């Protein structure tokens, strides 16, 4: 089990080095087990250096850079054992438009293994969806779902209310 | 295996029976603040067996039952049905009491009442929480897999201490 | 000093009841000192009920509703002793467009007493600014400021690089 | 009194001397992730006397000195000048050594070097940190006034425990 953790850790680490470069368009990132501690108890340290910048503590990274780093780590974990479906709630909130494009670009590659349900306020993220559901509270305090469906990736959306069954 | 649909009734702000069909690929859920998007996410975690009311943003489990609005009375219970398709070689239901074979479509159901007690069903057969949890055990779904990232959770991965992060890795392993 | 706290608390409380209604277009909110504790040590409890909804713990409010409630509290505190200037860094990130309009609507009323510096990604917030500065990293790792000035509220922006002095 | 301009040199990502003029009313600061917007906010808090490196997202105070990029070497110090106008009846500088009268324009300057030591100036006269802090004492500016809300801070107001919130109120009082 100590071996199992070490194997998984090393796989996630290699994946993370890769996903970070893809999401940031360069730079370097790594995961380290904290030195001098029993490997069964050692904490995990994250090192992240965006392209062109000097390495520093990750606390000095901006809000968006921290989020993108965490997204790289999340995808690194997904690569180990893809789940049949993933639900992501407003992951893109701190990201600017070009980082959202990088995020959605990576997400699309995971579609081979997983189905994604994404909660978002961003038009850019919505643009890559195959199906869209709008949640409204026409009657205050009561949620209702309306489907706005896309067929394939065509932008021919036809808004039809979801039949309450 | 993929997620086919979810039916929500009486769970948080979903006072009326609500059905959402999922397609393979990417489904986006949109809407203004407070309309119920994260509640959909909560309902998925809940029906899969989430036991912590706090993880569902409530102080007690009965807090997820629709508790009324200006015009509506509270409901007596909350119920969610989550249906998966193409399950034959992925989910093993054959071992459950009263279930003879592995199904191609599996529906997990959970109900909770005002006294906080929950009931669980797999394809309409009553079962226990642990049956639901073991059903998804090797699939990568379930509370420790990080396949469900609720609002604000990703910030916690980075701000977590090195030791807390270790736990994240152990769970993912 | 116990009296001073009580007075300030009561003023903030009254302000908060008001600012909440304005930002939510209705509903009810309150601040309470936790019962049964020495008033010198009593914690502060927040109650917030958006219009049309039943009162519940504030943890059940959505991300955007929680932010708007905190913004109401912030403005309630500002009303007690307005500062000559305020710097707000991405307060609007979790808010949808109509809540951003409510936020900026309230903000404009505080302009009598305070100057505001607002860091934002939102076009809606940017639209109420009197002056806009763009920060860029043309050279990676090195920040540079470019001013995009509006005169009054005219939308005639002329982009001219800030002279490095 | 209002904020007139800020000059930043060697502070965090501002390797080159940067001047920002503020007008009365609303000034918006925009740009992509990581370009330096929050660093401007940090520089304002820092020059007003912020003593906690952690509050500036750094592990030590020297961490706010520009520490180089692919093409640039680190700088030896960081320096920020913050200028206020219309100060005559608001900020009282007359008591400072070498300063005869209350000024209409007041510039606060702070420098920090690699060894972590800071220098402070008010209108070019060297002074101590406590002089800067007392200068703004009754104006509502300064670290406990909540007039500077850094990224993510507003979420902490709500998630804070009732006891922590008490402290917020006491500071605002
Ligand atoms: N048991 C309940 N009964 C009725 N309403 C509830 C219940 N639990 C939560 N709610 C309501 O659900 C709303 C929150 O919904 P949710 O968190 O899904 O919003 P959201 O769409 O994710 O918004 P945001 O974009 O701000 O994150 C709150 O207004 C809350 O009052
Ligand atoms: N001492 C320093 N020397 C050089 N660069 C630094 C220093 N301290 C911080 N930085 C850099 O500043 C950047 C962060 O800037 P900042 O937090 O202002 O971004 P931002 O514009 O607010 O972005 P976001 O929109 O994501 O919040 C980081 O990339 C960080 O590496
Ligand atoms: Mg939400
Ligand atoms: Mg920022």
Note down, in words, how this protein is organized.
- With 165 residues, chain A is an alpha+beta fold.
- Helix content of chain A is 35%, strand content 26%.
- Chain A contains four helices and seven strands, in the order H-E-E-H-E-H-E-H-E-E-E.
- In chain A, the strands form three sheets. In chain A, strands 5-6-7 form a three-stranded antiparallel β-sheet, with no helix packed on it. A two-stranded antiparallel sheet of chain A has the order 1-2. Chain A has a two-stranded parallel ribbon with strand order 3-4.
- Chain A starts with a helix and ends with a strand.
- The model of chain A is unreliable at 153-165 (pLDDT under 50).
- Helix content of chain B is 21%, strand content 25%.
- Chain B has a six-stranded antiparallel β-sheet.
- Chain B starts with a strand and ends with a helix.
- Chain B has four helices and eight strands; from the N terminus they run E-E-E-H-E-E-E-E-H-E-H-H.
- Chain B is α+β, with helices and mostly antiparallel strands and 173 residues long.
- In chain B, a hairpin with an 8-residue loop joins strand 1 (2-9) and strand 2 (18-21).
- Chain B has helices at residues 37-47, 129-135, 153-159, 162-172; strands spanning 2-9, 18-21, 26-30, 77-85, 106-113, 118-122, 125-127, 148-149.
- The A-D interface holds A 50, 52-54, 56-57, 59-65, 68, 94-96, 98-99 and D 12, 32-35, 37-38, 54, 57-59, 63, 67-70, 74, 151-152.
- Bound molecules: adenosine-5'-triphosphate (2 copies) and magnesium ion (2 copies).
- One adenosine-5'-triphosphate (ATP) sits between chains B (12-13, 31, 33-39, 63-67, 151) and C (50, 53, 56, 60-65).
- The site of one magnesium ion has 3 residues of chain D, from helix 1.
């Amino acid at each position: 089990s100590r071996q199992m953790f070490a194997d998984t850790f090393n796989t996630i680490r290699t994946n993370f080095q890769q996903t970070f470069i893809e999401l940031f368009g360069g730079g370097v990132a790594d995961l380290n087990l904290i030195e001098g501690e029993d490997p069964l108890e050692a904490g995990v340290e994250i090192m992240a250096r965006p392209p062109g910048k000097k390495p520093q503590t990750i606390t000095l990274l901006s809000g968006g850079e921290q989020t993108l780093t965490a997204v790289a780590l999340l995808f690194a974990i997904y690569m180990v054992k893809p789940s049949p479906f993933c639900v992501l709630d407003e992951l893109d909130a701190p990201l600017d438009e070009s980082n959202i494009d990088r995020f959605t670009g990576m997400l699309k590659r995971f579609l081979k293994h997983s189905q994604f349900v994404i909660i978002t306020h961003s038009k850019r993220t919505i643009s890559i969806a195959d199906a869209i559901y709008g949640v409204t509270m026409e009657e205050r305090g009561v949620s209702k779902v309306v489907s706005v469906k896309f067929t394939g990736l065509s932008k021919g959306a036809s808004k039809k209310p979801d039949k309450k069954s | 295996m993929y997620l086919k649909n979810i039916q929500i009734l009486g769970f948080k702000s979903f006072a009326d029976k609500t059905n959402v069909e999922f397609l393979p690929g990417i489904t986006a859920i949109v809407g203004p603040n407070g309309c119920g998007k994260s509640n959909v996410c909560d309902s998925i975690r809940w029906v899969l067996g989430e036991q912590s009311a706090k993880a569902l943003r409530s102080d007690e489990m009965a807090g997820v039952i629709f508790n009324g609005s200006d015009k509506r009375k509270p409901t007596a219970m909350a119920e969610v049905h989550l249906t998966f398709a193409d399950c034959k070689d992925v989910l093993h239901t054959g071992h459950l009491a009263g279930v003879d074979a592995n199904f191609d479509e599996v529906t997990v159901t959970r109900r909770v009442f005002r006294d906080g007690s929950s009931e669980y069903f797999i394809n309409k057969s009553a079962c226990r929480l642990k049956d639901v949890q073991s059903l998804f055990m090797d699939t990568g779904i379930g509370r420790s897999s990080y396949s469900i990232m609720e609002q604000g959770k990703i910030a916690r991965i980075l701000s977590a201490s090195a030791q807390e992060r270790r736990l994240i890795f152990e769970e993912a392993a």
